[in-house]
Design brief:
single chain; 213 residues; Lambda Exonuclease, Chain A; 2 domains; seven-stranded mixed β-sheet; binds iron/sulfur cluster
Length: 213
């Protein structure tokens, strides 16, 4: 059996934001910048270069490569703190003010799960550092969150294997999404275009079934 390509850890954040966004980026390989993504990239410049420093007794590694053979993940952590008592603490940098959302939590939890495999230890929590407000939001890697990470990985893998891109959500997430113009959520989700879109998805499914038979 052909070995599957590892999934980027950042795909989990895309998936948590909108499954269609994840599909457009990781199945269709489409990407567009908008002011939000550009500001996010700018904010990341301070942690994009591999570096090791010491702060208050902790070894701080920036842009640390991460992987997990068990989960089939690869990526990079913005910051990982290694404390003298053995605590390992990943920190993901995000543009924007401090706010709770699942998609950032999925990403930093997946980083923690990779670190557990890489260093053979338990990683119980990490944080999101919000660049605009310069505040951290701590994320506990609960069993519930870990299960959500595993479910997201399984669904992303299925999407890639099947070439499946989910339908648009067409809600308040869309105006800020850099893929809005490619995705066309209003056109595909409303009125008679919704019927055409559903018919198109059905047609694609039928073609796939024919190919498999
Ligand atoms: S525009 Fe909306 S539906 Fe389309 S990818 Fe972005 S968030 Fe998802």
């Amino acid at each position: 059996m052909q070995e599957e390509e590892p999934i980027l850890i950042s795909a989990l954040a895309q998936y948590g934001y909108c499954t269609r966004r994840c599909g457009l980026m990781h199945v269709e390989q489409l990407y567009e910048e908008n002011p939000y993504t550009l500001m996010g990239a700018r904010g990341h410049t301070q942690v994009d270069v591999e570096d090791v420093v010491s702060v208050r007794g902790a070894r701080i590694e920036r842009a640390l490569p991460l992987w997990s053979d068990r989960l089939g993940l690869v990526g990079r952590a913005d910051v990982v703190e290694f404390w003298p008592d053995g605590t390992i603490y990943p920190v993901e940098y995000k543009h924007g003010p401090r706010r709770h959302n699942l998609f950032d939590a999925l990403q930093v939890c997946a980083q923690g799960m990779c670190l557990e495999e890489m260093f053979g230890c338990s990683v119980e929590k990490g944080a999101i550092y919000h660049i605009s407000s310069r505040r951290r939001r701590e994320v506990l890697f609960t069993e519930e969150l870990r299960t959500k990470v595993l479910e997201a990985i399984a669904d992303i893998r299925d999407m890639i294997r099947e070439g499946r891109v989910p339908p648009p959500v067409n809600d308040k997430r869309c105006p800020n999404c850099s893929l809005h113009d490619i995705c066309m959520p209003e056109v595909l989700a409303t009125g008679r275009f919704a019927w055409h879109a559903k018919a198109l998805y059905r047609l694609e499914e039928m073609e796939e079934e024919e190919d498999e038979s």
